[in-house]
Amino acid sequence: LVHGMVAVSWMGEVNPDTFIVVNDRAANDPFETMTLKLAKPANADMFVWTKAKAVERLKSGKYDKRRLFVVVGDIYDAEFLIDNVPGITRLNVGPPLDEKSGRITEGKIEVAKVYITPEEFEIIKKIHNLGVEVFAQITPTVSRADYEEIEKKFQ
After folding, report:
1. Looking at the whole model, is its pTM more than 0.85?
2. Segment 68-97, tens digit of pLDDT
3. 149 in Cβ contact with 113 (< 8 Å)
4. Under a CB-based contact definition with an 8 Å cutoff, are residues 40 and 19 in contact?
């Protein structure tokens, strides 16, 4: 969810003061939470929340003035947040990882080094149709695939 590529490469691009990881599994596993927090840059806060806690906290107004970088475990977590937290305007679809075997590619279509299933694309399309800017870009230094490019791969 958060590792060197996310913490370091995106830090300069997004310049957040707060990292928020939203994933039920990670939030309910003290060891995983501790490990995630080790990847946090020194000049930013980090929280690891369940989806329910994220909705509650993000809707509270407490974080409205902060520059947030929210990382989710998969497209389903992203869909839940977008459906329940007003004001999310951008979604970068990154490569989901399996904690045991690494990047999952089987049965998926590659778009800008991100692998997406047809089912995941349907969720991406729904999110796009809500007016959210959707793109795929694994680091700021590589080309990004806008929604239209992602969509072409599924036609």
Report:
1. yes
2. 989 898 899 999 999 999 999 999 998 765
3. no
4. yes
